[in-house]
Amino acid sequence: MVLRCLVWLFIIGCVSKVLCSCGAQSEPTAPQGAASCGCEKLKRAAAAVDGAEEQTASVLTDTAGKYSRVANERASQAQGDERELHSQMVQISGGEFLMGTDNPGIPADGEGPPRLVHVDSFYMDIQEVTNRQFQSFVHATAYVTEAEKFGDSFVFEGILSETVKSQITQAVAAAPWWLPVKGANWRHPEGLDSNITDRLDHPVLHVSWADAVAYCSWTNKKLPTEAEWEYACRGGLKDRLYPWGNKLNPKGQHYANLWQGDFPNHNTGEDGYVKSSPVMSFPANGFGLYDMVGNAWEWTSDWWTVHHTTEQQDNPKGPPSGTDKVKKGGSYMCHKSYCYRYRCAARSQNSPDSSASNLGFRCVSREQR
Ligand SMILES: *[C@@H]1O[C@H](CO)[C@@H](O)[C@H](O)[C@H]1NC(C)=O
Ligand SMILES: [Ca+2]
Ligand SMILES: [Ca+2]
Questions:
Q1: Of the candidates 196, 209, 155, which has an alpha carbon nearest to the alpha carbon of residue 356?
Q2: Best of 131, 161, 194, 197 for a ligand 1 pocket test (most atoms within 8 Å of beta carbon)
């Protein structure tokens, strides 16, 4: 199984190398073997097993149902302060926009072609779901995340303690800075010797796709489609790279928690953070949404494909099935040389059961919650 996994990862590594060299702004100092993107796709070994997808999908449906039932039962006895823990939402007025781009930073990710998409009005959390919010969900439902069940999760090497690093023997071949860390989960973002006591207002991390769906269901919300997410990211601007425009740092200001310095060796933390930041630490976009790019990657409800119709679409939901889910927005690990994915049109993928130290989510709903 381990062998199979490594072979699989090696293949991914080769593909990534091609993908990322497309996105990379030629970086002559790129260290050997570091060509794949730091904030890219991760898979648990199990996800490579044939047929695992359908099984996962049915389990996920059950999970969502169960937790929304719990939510409904609790709704009648909901306490005011429990409600206050839920994110504030803003209404995103529906409309038409050009999804994707004709000038893809990473063409192999399926950023193009641009296509006319209409989305109906919806409400979106103004922030990534925080540790505090996820904790209230776990307190109320006794929910156990997939990383807790598996017993490990992927953590970026650069933020691990020496003690934890010394206990690890395995790494992701294509991206050696990703280490599967025993005991890493949302409560222990860098393994057992870490905690979230001082990070309750940071995005919850190490949540799988099913974990994210379960949380959203509990709040009577759901994950955004990729189209909803991208429409929201653009904040009403047309044909811009970022939620705020085309300049990464207008007037020298940082607008998102990203990586400054050399990836993966040195993060200068010029934007104030080398890891996650408290949500809403950077300016909101035109729709009042924070951290749409940077800080934590965000799960969407869509299955991954790189093939898109050029025909006009109405509330597209992505392919009916797949092996990976789409994530959007990039994270605090993204740097132009390795992971130029902190753009609204950028996208990446993870197997739904994977979790990592830079991946979170936010929820949407049809009605005000
Ligand atoms: C949480 O971690 C901090 C150090 O980051 C430590 O001082 C503190 O004792 C830890 N708290 C718990 C409850 O483990
Ligand atoms: Ca940063
Ligand atoms: Ca984000």
A1: 155
A2: 197
pLDDT digits 0-9 by tens, 52-87:
333 333 344 444 555 554 444 444 344 445 555 889
How far does residue 358's CA lie from ligand 3's centre (Å)? 9
195: Cβ below 6 Å to ligand 1?
A: yes
For residue 294, the ligand closest to its alpha carbon is 3
Instruction: Give the containing element (helix H, strand E) for 221.
Output: none
Residue 140 buriedness (CB in 10 A; 0-12 / 13-18 / 19+): middle
Atom of ligand 1 nearest to the CA of 195: 1
Residue with CA closest to ligand 1 atom 12? 195
Strands (E) in the chain, as ranges, are 89-92, 95-99, 115-119, 122-125, 152-156, 178-182, 261-262, 266-267, 297-303, 313-314, 325-328, 348-350, 359-360, 364-365
- Report which of residues 161 and 28 the model is more confident about: 161
Locus of tokens 């199990």: 46
Q: pTM for the full model?
A: 0.83
Percent with pLDDT over 90 in the chain = 72
161 pocket-lining for ligand 1 (C-beta < 6 Å): no
Query: Which ligand 1 atom minimizes the distance to the CA of 194?
Result: 2
- φ, ψ dihedrals at 112, nearest 5°: -120, 180
- Establish whether residue 25 lines the binding site of ligand 1, counting it when its CB lies within 6 angstroms of any ligand atom: no
Residues 99-138: tens digit of each pLDDT: 999 999 999 999 999 999 999 999 999 999 999 999 999 9
